[in-house]
Amino acid sequence: MQPKLLTALLALVVLGGIAVFVFREGPSAEAGPAAPPVLGPPPVTVAIVAARDLAETTEFTGRLGAIDDVEIRPRVSGYLEEVHFQSGQLVKRGDLLFTIDSRYYAATLAATEADVVQSRVRLENADKEAQRATQLLGSRAISAEESESRSSRQAEAKAGLLSAEASRDMANLDVEYTRVVAPVDGRVSRALVTPGNFVSGVPSANTLLTTIVSVDPIFVYVDVDENSLLALQRLMRANQLAHDEQGRVQVEVGLADETGFPRAGVVESLGNRLDSGTGSILMRVLVPNPDGLLLPGLFARVRMPTTAKQPTLLVNQRAIGTDQSQKFVYVVGEDRVAQHRAVTLGPVIEGLRVVRSGLEAGEQIIVNGLQRVRPGTPVTPELEKSKSDLR
After folding, report:
1. Given Cys at both, which of 43, 226, 306, 342 links 380, Cβ 3.0 to 4.6 Å?
2. Domains of the chain in sequence order
3. pTM of the entire structure?
Protein backbone atom coordinates (compact mmCIF):
# COMPACT_ATOMS: atom_id res chain seq x y z
CA MET A 1 0.00 0.00 0.00
CA GLN A 2 2.79 2.43 0.65
CA PRO A 3 4.17 2.34 -2.92
CA LYS A 4 0.70 3.00 -4.31
CA LEU A 5 0.21 5.90 -1.88
CA LEU A 6 3.59 7.37 -2.89
CA THR A 7 2.72 7.08 -6.59
CA ALA A 8 -0.58 8.89 -6.02
CA LEU A 9 1.09 11.69 -4.16
CA LEU A 10 3.68 12.20 -6.96
CA ALA A 11 0.88 12.35 -9.54
CA LEU A 12 -0.92 15.02 -7.54
CA VAL A 13 2.27 17.12 -7.29
CA VAL A 14 2.88 16.94 -11.07
CA LEU A 15 -0.73 17.87 -11.88
CA GLY A 16 -0.58 20.77 -9.41
CA GLY A 17 2.59 22.16 -11.04
CA ILE A 18 1.03 21.98 -14.51
CA ALA A 19 -2.05 23.78 -13.25
CA VAL A 20 0.03 26.55 -11.68
CA PHE A 21 2.07 26.99 -14.93
CA VAL A 22 -1.06 27.21 -17.06
CA PHE A 23 -2.66 29.66 -14.63
CA ARG A 24 0.37 32.01 -14.72
CA GLU A 25 1.29 31.90 -18.43
CA GLY A 26 -2.11 31.65 -20.00
CA PRO A 27 -3.50 35.19 -19.40
CA SER A 28 -0.23 37.02 -20.34
CA ALA A 29 -0.01 35.11 -23.62
CA GLU A 30 -3.54 36.12 -24.55
CA ALA A 31 -3.04 39.87 -23.63
CA GLY A 32 -2.05 42.35 -26.44
CA PRO A 33 0.85 44.92 -26.39
CA ALA A 34 0.86 47.56 -23.68
CA ALA A 35 -1.03 50.75 -24.62
CA PRO A 36 1.23 53.84 -25.22
CA PRO A 37 1.15 56.52 -22.57
CA VAL A 38 -1.20 59.42 -23.29
CA LEU A 39 0.86 62.60 -24.34
CA GLY A 40 -0.23 66.26 -24.40
CA PRO A 41 0.22 68.82 -27.24
CA PRO A 42 3.86 69.00 -28.44
CA PRO A 43 5.96 71.83 -26.98
CA VAL A 44 7.16 74.52 -29.42
CA THR A 45 9.04 77.78 -29.15
CA VAL A 46 7.27 80.88 -30.44
CA ALA A 47 8.30 84.47 -31.12
CA ILE A 48 6.21 87.60 -31.45
CA VAL A 49 6.19 89.26 -34.86
CA ALA A 50 7.71 92.72 -34.35
CA ALA A 51 7.35 95.84 -36.49
CA ARG A 52 10.29 98.25 -36.82
CA ASP A 53 10.82 101.42 -38.84
CA LEU A 54 13.38 100.27 -41.39
CA ALA A 55 14.39 100.91 -44.96
CA GLU A 56 14.68 97.87 -47.18
CA THR A 57 18.10 97.47 -48.75
CA THR A 58 19.78 95.70 -51.63
CA GLU A 59 23.31 94.34 -51.58
CA PHE A 60 25.77 94.62 -54.45
CA THR A 61 29.31 93.45 -55.06
CA GLY A 62 31.86 95.86 -56.49
CA ARG A 63 35.55 96.50 -56.99
CA LEU A 64 37.70 99.07 -55.24
CA GLY A 65 39.54 101.60 -57.38
CA ALA A 66 41.86 104.47 -56.56
CA ILE A 67 40.79 108.04 -57.23
CA ASP A 68 44.26 108.87 -58.57
CA ASP A 69 46.25 106.21 -60.42
CA VAL A 70 49.36 107.87 -61.83
CA GLU A 71 52.24 106.50 -63.90
CA ILE A 72 55.50 108.23 -63.08
CA ARG A 73 57.54 108.89 -66.23
CA PRO A 74 60.50 111.28 -66.76
CA ARG A 75 60.19 114.46 -68.83
CA VAL A 76 63.87 114.55 -69.74
CA SER A 77 66.28 111.85 -70.85
CA GLY A 78 69.41 110.88 -68.96
CA TYR A 79 71.01 108.39 -66.61
CA LEU A 80 69.16 107.64 -63.40
CA GLU A 81 71.27 108.61 -60.40
CA GLU A 82 69.24 107.74 -57.30
CA VAL A 83 65.93 106.36 -56.03
CA HIS A 84 64.60 108.20 -52.96
CA PHE A 85 61.78 105.96 -51.69
CA GLN A 86 61.02 102.47 -50.42
CA SER A 87 58.58 100.15 -52.18
CA GLY A 88 55.03 100.59 -50.86
CA GLN A 89 55.86 103.84 -49.07
CA LEU A 90 53.24 106.51 -48.52
CA VAL A 91 54.35 109.75 -50.21
CA LYS A 92 53.07 113.29 -50.30
CA ARG A 93 52.70 115.50 -53.32
CA GLY A 94 56.08 117.06 -54.11
CA ASP A 95 58.19 114.36 -52.42
CA LEU A 96 61.37 113.54 -54.36
CA LEU A 97 61.23 110.08 -55.98
CA PHE A 98 64.07 109.91 -58.56
CA THR A 99 67.11 111.97 -59.53
CA ILE A 100 68.41 112.06 -63.12
CA ASP A 101 71.93 113.26 -64.02
CA SER A 102 71.47 117.03 -64.42
CA ARG A 103 74.96 118.17 -65.50
CA TYR A 104 74.12 118.50 -69.18
CA TYR A 105 70.94 120.44 -68.46
CA ALA A 106 72.71 122.67 -65.94
CA ALA A 107 75.31 123.57 -68.60
CA THR A 108 72.55 124.31 -71.11
CA LEU A 109 70.87 126.56 -68.54
CA ALA A 110 74.12 128.48 -67.99
CA ALA A 111 74.47 129.02 -71.76
CA THR A 112 70.92 130.31 -72.07
CA GLU A 113 71.44 132.66 -69.15
CA ALA A 114 74.47 134.07 -70.98
CA ASP A 115 72.33 134.56 -74.08
CA VAL A 116 69.84 136.49 -71.99
CA VAL A 117 72.56 138.83 -70.72
CA GLN A 118 73.86 139.33 -74.26
CA SER A 119 70.37 140.03 -75.62
CA ARG A 120 69.70 142.48 -72.83
CA VAL A 121 72.90 144.46 -73.74
CA ARG A 122 71.87 144.53 -77.38
CA LEU A 123 68.47 145.86 -76.44
CA GLU A 124 69.99 148.59 -74.31
CA ASN A 125 72.19 149.72 -77.24
CA ALA A 126 69.24 149.59 -79.61
CA ASP A 127 67.18 151.69 -77.21
CA LYS A 128 69.89 154.34 -77.08
CA GLU A 129 70.27 154.43 -80.85
CA ALA A 130 66.50 154.74 -81.27
CA GLN A 131 66.38 157.66 -78.85
CA ARG A 132 69.23 159.47 -80.66
CA ALA A 133 67.57 158.80 -83.98
CA THR A 134 64.48 160.63 -82.82
CA GLN A 135 66.54 163.68 -81.87
CA LEU A 136 68.64 163.60 -85.04
CA LEU A 137 65.58 163.25 -87.21
CA GLY A 138 64.10 166.37 -85.58
CA SER A 139 67.20 168.39 -86.55
CA ARG A 140 67.30 166.73 -89.98
CA ALA A 141 70.76 165.27 -89.25
CA ILE A 142 69.68 161.80 -90.48
CA SER A 143 67.19 160.61 -92.99
CA ALA A 144 63.85 159.11 -92.21
CA GLU A 145 65.04 155.75 -93.56
CA GLU A 146 67.92 155.68 -91.04
CA SER A 147 65.55 156.50 -88.19
CA GLU A 148 63.21 153.68 -89.21
CA SER A 149 66.16 151.26 -89.48
CA ARG A 150 67.23 152.04 -85.92
CA SER A 151 63.66 151.55 -84.68
CA SER A 152 63.58 148.17 -86.42
CA ARG A 153 66.82 147.13 -84.77
CA GLN A 154 65.32 148.12 -81.42
CA ALA A 155 62.28 145.88 -82.04
CA GLU A 156 64.54 143.01 -83.14
CA ALA A 157 66.58 143.41 -79.96
CA LYS A 158 63.41 143.21 -77.86
CA ALA A 159 62.36 140.05 -79.67
CA GLY A 160 65.83 138.58 -79.27
CA LEU A 161 65.69 139.18 -75.51
CA LEU A 162 62.26 137.51 -75.26
CA SER A 163 63.53 134.49 -77.21
CA ALA A 164 66.63 134.22 -75.02
CA GLU A 165 64.52 134.40 -71.86
CA ALA A 166 62.18 131.68 -73.20
CA SER A 167 65.14 129.42 -73.94
CA ARG A 168 66.47 130.08 -70.45
CA ASP A 169 63.07 129.18 -68.90
CA MET A 170 62.94 125.94 -70.92
CA ALA A 171 66.46 125.03 -69.83
CA ASN A 172 65.50 125.80 -66.24
CA LEU A 173 62.50 123.45 -66.55
CA ASP A 174 64.76 120.70 -67.88
CA VAL A 175 66.96 121.10 -64.81
CA GLU A 176 63.88 120.89 -62.57
CA TYR A 177 62.64 117.81 -64.43
CA THR A 178 65.81 115.93 -63.49
CA ARG A 179 64.18 115.76 -60.05
CA VAL A 180 61.16 113.47 -60.45
CA VAL A 181 58.65 114.25 -57.70
CA ALA A 182 55.30 112.76 -56.66
CA PRO A 183 52.41 114.56 -58.41
CA VAL A 184 49.78 113.30 -55.90
CA ASP A 185 49.49 111.92 -52.38
CA GLY A 186 49.36 108.15 -52.25
CA ARG A 187 51.18 104.85 -52.03
CA VAL A 188 54.11 104.34 -54.38
CA SER A 189 54.92 101.04 -56.03
CA ARG A 190 58.43 99.62 -56.45
CA ALA A 191 61.06 101.31 -58.60
CA LEU A 192 60.90 99.76 -62.07
CA VAL A 193 64.31 101.19 -63.07
CA THR A 194 67.46 101.02 -60.96
CA PRO A 195 70.19 103.69 -60.78
CA GLY A 196 72.68 103.66 -63.64
CA ASN A 197 70.12 102.91 -66.35
CA PHE A 198 69.28 105.36 -69.09
CA VAL A 199 65.70 106.63 -69.01
CA SER A 200 63.91 108.27 -71.90
CA GLY A 201 61.98 111.50 -71.63
CA VAL A 202 60.74 111.47 -75.21
CA PRO A 203 56.93 111.98 -75.05
CA SER A 204 56.17 109.00 -77.31
CA ALA A 205 58.59 106.64 -75.55
CA ASN A 206 58.81 107.68 -71.91
CA THR A 207 60.32 105.15 -69.53
CA LEU A 208 57.90 103.99 -66.82
CA LEU A 209 59.63 104.54 -63.47
CA THR A 210 56.89 103.59 -60.98
CA THR A 211 53.21 104.15 -60.18
CA ILE A 212 51.31 105.93 -57.41
CA VAL A 213 47.74 105.27 -56.29
CA SER A 214 45.83 107.51 -53.90
CA VAL A 215 44.75 105.92 -50.62
CA ASP A 216 42.18 108.06 -48.84
CA PRO A 217 39.40 108.25 -49.93
CA ILE A 218 38.80 105.44 -52.42
CA PHE A 219 36.12 104.49 -54.96
CA VAL A 220 33.91 101.38 -55.15
CA TYR A 221 32.62 100.62 -58.65
CA VAL A 222 29.26 98.79 -58.60
CA ASP A 223 26.96 97.56 -61.38
CA VAL A 224 23.38 98.40 -60.38
CA ASP A 225 20.45 96.61 -62.01
CA GLU A 226 17.61 98.51 -63.64
CA ASN A 227 14.98 97.91 -60.93
CA SER A 228 17.28 99.07 -58.15
CA LEU A 229 18.26 102.12 -60.18
CA LEU A 230 14.63 103.14 -60.71
CA ALA A 231 13.85 102.69 -57.02
CA LEU A 232 16.90 104.73 -56.05
CA GLN A 233 16.02 107.57 -58.43
CA ARG A 234 12.44 107.78 -57.17
CA LEU A 235 13.60 107.97 -53.56
CA MET A 236 16.21 110.59 -54.44
CA ARG A 237 13.63 112.77 -56.19
CA ALA A 238 11.30 112.43 -53.20
CA ASN A 239 14.18 113.25 -50.82
CA GLN A 240 13.43 110.12 -48.77
CA LEU A 241 16.99 108.84 -48.40
CA ALA A 242 19.63 109.64 -45.82
CA HIS A 243 22.28 111.95 -47.30
CA ASP A 244 25.29 113.98 -46.23
CA GLU A 245 25.68 117.76 -46.18
CA GLN A 246 26.40 117.74 -49.91
CA GLY A 247 23.20 115.87 -50.72
CA ARG A 248 24.92 112.58 -51.59
CA VAL A 249 23.04 109.36 -50.75
CA GLN A 250 24.61 107.39 -47.90
CA VAL A 251 25.36 103.68 -48.29
CA GLU A 252 27.15 101.00 -46.27
CA VAL A 253 30.29 99.15 -47.34
CA GLY A 254 32.07 96.03 -46.09
CA LEU A 255 35.02 93.96 -47.24
CA ALA A 256 34.78 90.26 -48.06
CA ASP A 257 36.11 89.18 -44.63
CA GLU A 258 34.24 91.77 -42.56
CA THR A 259 31.04 91.03 -40.66
CA GLY A 260 28.18 93.23 -41.78
CA PHE A 261 28.86 96.64 -43.27
CA PRO A 262 31.09 98.56 -40.86
CA ARG A 263 32.11 101.32 -43.31
CA ALA A 264 30.07 104.30 -44.46
CA GLY A 265 30.14 105.68 -47.98
CA VAL A 266 28.22 107.99 -50.31
CA VAL A 267 27.05 107.65 -53.90
CA GLU A 268 29.51 109.88 -55.77
CA SER A 269 28.08 109.47 -59.27
CA LEU A 270 25.99 107.33 -61.59
CA GLY A 271 26.69 106.55 -65.22
CA ASN A 272 24.83 108.43 -67.93
CA ARG A 273 23.40 105.37 -69.69
CA LEU A 274 22.25 101.82 -68.99
CA ASP A 275 24.28 99.04 -70.56
CA SER A 276 21.83 97.26 -72.86
CA GLY A 277 23.97 94.12 -72.80
CA THR A 278 24.05 93.66 -69.01
CA GLY A 279 20.97 95.67 -68.04
CA SER A 280 22.98 97.57 -65.43
CA ILE A 281 24.49 100.99 -64.85
CA LEU A 282 27.82 101.82 -63.23
CA MET A 283 27.59 103.47 -59.83
CA ARG A 284 30.61 104.96 -58.08
CA VAL A 285 30.69 105.04 -54.29
CA LEU A 286 33.14 107.20 -52.33
CA VAL A 287 34.46 105.59 -49.12
CA PRO A 288 36.84 107.10 -46.53
CA ASN A 289 39.97 104.97 -46.03
CA PRO A 290 41.90 106.46 -43.11
CA ASP A 291 43.41 103.11 -42.08
CA GLY A 292 44.58 102.35 -45.63
CA LEU A 293 43.08 98.85 -45.45
CA LEU A 294 41.08 99.33 -48.64
CA LEU A 295 43.28 98.60 -51.67
CA PRO A 296 42.46 99.03 -55.35
CA GLY A 297 41.25 95.78 -56.88
CA LEU A 298 39.70 94.29 -53.72
CA PHE A 299 36.11 93.09 -53.69
CA ALA A 300 33.67 95.09 -51.58
CA ARG A 301 30.04 94.63 -50.59
CA VAL A 302 27.73 97.64 -50.85
CA ARG A 303 24.33 97.86 -49.17
CA MET A 304 22.03 100.48 -50.63
CA PRO A 305 18.51 101.50 -49.50
CA THR A 306 15.72 100.75 -51.97
CA THR A 307 12.78 102.06 -49.89
CA ALA A 308 12.17 104.88 -47.45
CA LYS A 309 11.89 104.11 -43.74
CA GLN A 310 8.54 102.49 -43.01
CA PRO A 311 6.99 100.01 -40.52
CA THR A 312 8.44 96.63 -41.45
CA LEU A 313 7.62 93.16 -40.12
CA LEU A 314 10.65 91.00 -39.34
CA VAL A 315 10.79 87.28 -38.52
CA ASN A 316 13.50 84.77 -37.83
CA GLN A 317 14.35 82.74 -40.92
CA ARG A 318 14.06 79.52 -38.88
CA ALA A 319 10.29 80.11 -38.75
CA ILE A 320 9.93 80.01 -42.54
CA GLY A 321 8.94 76.79 -44.23
CA THR A 322 8.77 75.95 -47.92
CA ASP A 323 5.96 74.09 -49.69
CA GLN A 324 7.20 73.78 -53.26
CA SER A 325 7.51 77.45 -54.26
CA GLN A 326 5.26 78.77 -51.51
CA LYS A 327 6.71 80.15 -48.27
CA PHE A 328 4.74 79.72 -45.06
CA VAL A 329 4.89 80.01 -41.27
CA TYR A 330 2.89 78.46 -38.43
CA VAL A 331 0.89 80.97 -36.39
CA VAL A 332 -0.30 80.07 -32.88
CA GLY A 333 -3.66 81.64 -32.02
CA GLU A 334 -5.37 82.15 -28.71
CA ASP A 335 -6.69 78.58 -28.84
CA ARG A 336 -3.08 77.32 -29.05
CA VAL A 337 -3.73 75.67 -32.38
CA ALA A 338 -1.11 75.85 -35.14
CA GLN A 339 -2.35 77.63 -38.26
CA HIS A 340 -0.68 77.35 -41.66
CA ARG A 341 -0.12 80.88 -43.03
CA ALA A 342 1.29 81.68 -46.48
CA VAL A 343 3.63 84.72 -46.50
CA THR A 344 5.31 86.95 -49.04
CA LEU A 345 8.92 87.64 -48.14
CA GLY A 346 11.31 90.50 -48.74
CA PRO A 347 15.07 90.86 -48.26
CA VAL A 348 17.15 89.99 -45.20
CA ILE A 349 17.85 92.92 -42.87
CA GLU A 350 20.15 92.57 -39.87
CA GLY A 351 19.80 88.79 -39.99
CA LEU A 352 15.98 88.83 -40.02
CA ARG A 353 13.64 88.28 -42.97
CA VAL A 354 11.21 90.96 -44.09
CA VAL A 355 7.58 89.81 -44.40
CA ARG A 356 5.62 91.88 -46.92
CA SER A 357 2.26 90.18 -46.42
CA GLY A 358 0.59 87.32 -44.56
CA LEU A 359 1.33 88.36 -40.97
CA GLU A 360 0.46 91.13 -38.55
CA ALA A 361 2.49 92.68 -35.77
CA GLY A 362 1.96 90.98 -32.41
CA GLU A 363 1.13 87.52 -33.76
CA GLN A 364 3.01 84.52 -32.44
CA ILE A 365 4.87 82.29 -34.88
CA ILE A 366 6.64 79.00 -34.25
CA VAL A 367 10.42 79.25 -34.57
CA ASN A 368 11.46 75.94 -33.03
CA GLY A 369 9.76 72.53 -33.13
CA LEU A 370 8.28 72.81 -36.62
CA GLN A 371 8.86 69.10 -37.25
CA ARG A 372 6.32 68.26 -34.53
CA VAL A 373 3.58 70.55 -35.88
CA ARG A 374 0.78 69.96 -38.36
CA PRO A 375 -1.89 72.47 -39.43
CA GLY A 376 -4.83 72.47 -36.99
CA THR A 377 -2.99 70.58 -34.22
CA PRO A 378 -2.81 71.99 -30.70
CA VAL A 379 0.62 72.91 -29.36
CA THR A 380 2.19 73.99 -26.10
CA PRO A 381 3.86 77.35 -26.89
CA GLU A 382 6.82 78.71 -24.98
CA LEU A 383 7.89 82.31 -25.67
CA GLU A 384 11.48 83.12 -26.65
CA LYS A 385 13.46 84.33 -23.65
CA SER A 386 15.17 87.25 -25.39
CA LYS A 387 15.11 89.03 -28.73
CA SER A 388 18.73 88.18 -29.30
CA ASP A 389 17.69 84.54 -29.72
CA LEU A 390 15.84 85.50 -32.86
CA ARG A 391 19.05 86.11 -34.77
Report:
1. 43
2. 45-54+310-390 (2.40.420.20), 57-67+216-305 (2.40.30.170), 71-213 (2.40.50.100)
3. 0.66
